[in-house]
Sequence to fold (189 residues):
Amino acid sequence: MEGLTRKGFFEDVSFEVHRGEILGFGGLIGAGRTEVMRCLYGADKYQSGKIYIEGRAYVPSSTRKSIRAGFGFVPEDRRGQGFIPLLSINRNTALTNYDIIKKRFMAVSSPQELQMCREAIRKIDIRPADPEKPVGLMSGGNQQKVVIGKWLMRNLKVLIVDEPQPVSTWEPRMRFTGFWKNWLNRALS
Fold:
């Protein structure tokens, strides 16, 4: 990314990240970290600058286009923007994956949807392991796992995670750190 600018939020932001790397952003509230990530993902517009993916210029004109290009986004406000509380783990996992699990004429393959959900539950140990459990009734840590789990099913090139570790106690924090290290072994940026 070169010289990305969104007037009033951030100016001239440049960085480079390669497959298998983690790039972290820090800053005080209002520094523009979230806004940079949202622009990179296509959720917000920027005024100037260039974004490249695998050496080619890329303009993230919409979140749908970004998903098709291999981007995933885990928002800072997981509860408000990352899942739909009344929907089950199964349906929330499918939200970003309907293009993968659709059959002919845009109908969804229920067996494939359920298989995808069970795989996400297994990969990151979502509890309870009940695909029909409404996500809004789960603990905050497991809600976060659902938000991340839906992206595990895609062949992503870049996963943008705003506030990747809002876990306060030592043991869950260490498990979550191990989770990110394992994810890197899959060569995800």
About this structure: The longest strand covers residues 48-53. The chain has one domain: 2-184. The mean pLDDT is 87.
